[in-house]
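Fold this sequence, please.
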Amino acid sequence: MSVLPDSLAGWIVVAVLLFWFVGAYNRLVRSRAAVLQAYATLDAALRKQLDFVQASITASLPQQDASSPGPSSSVAPLQAATTQLATVLGATRLHPLDPGAMAALATALQVLINAWQRQHPDAVTVFDADGTLSRPAPLLPPGAGYGTDAALPGAFEPMAWPEPSASAEIARSQFNAAVGQYNAAIVQFPALLVAWLVRLHPAAPLL
């Protein structure tokens, strides 16, 4: 018994289903590509933050003799956090859609920011998602918001970046928005059937 349709109407149904599948798949692929492109921008912004912190560490190191080649104890935690973030960032770059990798990146980034705040309590700045300067960042306990927007549904708490530039917060906001659109697309019916067939999984924002 043939599985092929034996009537014109059957072929029309098959053609419509095929065109729908291709269209839905292309939309999901474009949404996924938007996430990857947004992450590439975010990755560049985070590497710029790392370069800024590393340059600050290098400038603050006292002249050392050959018997003490390592960093001084005052900047050692910041140097360790910088090294850790660079390692995690390299791993996340290979799998930016993996929620586990993004969670590790968020943790390493927060460790760096906390170490920077302890070393330079007056040299941290908060920007809103649109790049507007919010205010110099106070030293707040973990989980405390920087403003009322953090409590709004779907809003992300702005980070206190070492380098006084809005590029990192803008890139983070754009990446999180792209992730939200992608995740919404792959769970909508009937596109979720296509996502299941081609094994597309939800991504995670950088919190």
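Strands lie at 125-127, 133-136, 160-161. The first helix runs from residue 8 to 60.
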